[in-house]
Amino acid sequence: MDAYELSNDDYVRVQRATMRVLHDCMENFGLDFRGPEVYASKYPKNATMLGWLGANDVDRYGYRGPVGFTEDMAAAARRESRPIVIPESQLPVFEGSVTTYNGKVVPKGGCDEETRRKLNGGEISMQVEMTDPAVSPERGIQALRQQEGDRARSDPRFLSAVRSWSACMRKRGFQYRNPDESMSDPRWTPEEQTAGSPPSQREIATAAADRDCRDEVNFSGLLRLLVAHYEDEVIHTQSRRIHEIAELLKTRARNASKILRARRRQ
Q1: Mean model confidence pLDDT for the chain
Q2: What is the number of alpha carbons within 13 Å of residue 223 lying toward its C-beta?
Q3: What's the whole-model pTM score?
């Protein structure tokens, strides 16, 4: 579904414009909202979905990657969207749970929905056909890709590759049923040690063996083929809706450029 998505540069512009509009809306009510810095991730957007370890530099960092790795990988997967933290005192204006604040009318749905409307070019009532009705239209393609990625990981061909991976790991002295188990081993999960901190030699050895065994069974390559297969199915069954979402994304990119240009002229 890459053809229906925006470029990374466009996704960055959309996120920067989102933070700008949200800041201005909150400021209108006397609130000092500070969003995260938005910058382009240097990691491939599909790396997480395809289980690719090439960006981790496992021989040096094990699973945890260099400083900022986890956040940047997550941002790439979320199309450059980074988490925002809203102080509790600002939530009523952000969410729109109040109708007025400081004597001013709060927009429907709060500054959050107001920001979406400005990027989308108005109210969008499009419904994405999937199991989660809460998915917003602009996130429809990402959600569908995740859904088809889950189907690919349940495919018998992929499950066979996972068993081959496990056998490869056993030959190297590691007992894991699947890559998720090796990555989430309690001895080196992020809850125990933060990304960027020195990994143990055991973690490095495990991660290096994991990477080599994934390469041996063509883990990411097979997953890519299976995901593409299932994506083709959903493109066929939801062609009109996917094209509508793609047009919405383009609209958001155009509006983001206008917002940022107008801000630079101020």
Answers
A1: 92
A2: 22
A3: 0.87
